[in-house]
Amino acid sequence: MTSQKSILIVGCSTHGISSMLAQELAKRNHLVFIAVPDPSKVPQHTSTLPTVKVITLDPRTPASVAEGAKAVASATEEEHGARGLDVLINDAGLSQPLALLDAVMDAAKDVYEAKVTETLSMAGAFVDVLARKQGRILNLSSSGAFIAAPCMSPFRPALTTA
């Protein structure tokens, strides 16, 4: 039998892969933190599982990221005695399906910010709690990074960079 792991999932949409991943990990008795800007949007069937803890964290806001890191560090200490975080899963992001010539620069910047800058911010904020357990970082991406669809122009570079 494997020991309980502590896992942070950033981003957890109602029907996304992260929500299903959180449910499966919780069923295996792992301590799962779900970090989202609006906790009310986490599906109730996920947020009410006994080993799931929902924290408010907006990856676009440095103060929110710092508070989220403190909350996770504190919770892992309560649950495991300064054990730390085993895995950080970055799945926060957005898509702006626009053709390259129609792309609005602000929309392209938002996509890049979500998949690159915010991913780096999360890694930096959680490095100490990850280091306690020699934890891992998993950055989820999309097959959109490899599909040459005309409407994916602003989205593709951000996915391949992250």
Automatic annotation (TrEMBL):
InterPro entries recorded: NAD(P)-bd_dom_sf (IPR036291), SDR_fam (IPR002347)
GO cellular component annotations of the record: endoplasmic reticulum; lipid droplet
GO terms for biological process, alphabetical: phosphatidic acid biosynthetic process; triglyceride catabolic process
Pfam families assigned: adh_short (PF00106)
Keyword set includes Oxidoreductase: yes
Superkingdom of origin organism: Eukaryota
Gene3D superfamilies for this protein: NAD(P)-binding Rossmann-like Domain
Stored SUPFAM superfamilies: NAD(P)-binding Rossmann-fold domains (SSF51735)
Family: Belongs to the short-chain dehydrogenases/reductases (SDR) family.
Protein name per Swiss-Prot or TrEMBL: D-beta-hydroxybutyrate dehydrogenase-like protein
